[in-house]
Amino acid sequence: MSLKENVDYIKNEIDTEEKFLEGFVKLERVFKKYKFLLISTVAVVLIAFIGNSVKNYLDNETKLKANAAYNTLQTNPNDTVALAILKDTNENLYNIVLFLNSKKETTNIDSLFLKELSEYAVAIEKSDMSKLNSLTMNQDFILKEYVIFNKALLETKNNEFEKAKKTLEAIGEDSTISKIVNSLRHYLITK
Predict the structure, then answer these.
(1) Over the stretch 43-53, which tens digit does the pLDDT of each residue have?
(2) Cα angle at 77 between 75 and 78, to 5 degrees?
(3) CB count, 10 Å around CB of 63?
């Protein structure tokens, strides 16, 4: 290599180092200018990640406690400690256990659907038409058509055939229980 090539090579290396130092100085200026913002952002992301991990862990532990309490109640329905744990950890599962353990009582059940289901069972057992009427007025009740059908059955049993026919008109042809409704309608044709 000639002396000129060596000088050019050294010059090129110095320019590269100079550009590197210049970039580093620019980065340092940006860091100093936005230091608080960058550190805050990293801290928030880190805290959010840790918080989410802790929340997931606690939720999982709560589910495990609730499942253990539910399994205990499956074998021993009178275990008050397991019932208290279940009430604290999973309110919906607690309501289901209450419903299954005391089908006749509707006052202790907080879940709206289970309470209505329990009221329906009691109304059918007692042939309480006014309670069945109030249940059919609830548009959100999942068994509404079935309640209407049972109301028509009770009216048929009481020899109120015209009322039963009118009651069955509330159930559409596209209903999931249309086959049994049609059977009752055919029976009512002769009455």
Answers:
(1) 999 999 999 99
(2) 125
(3) 13
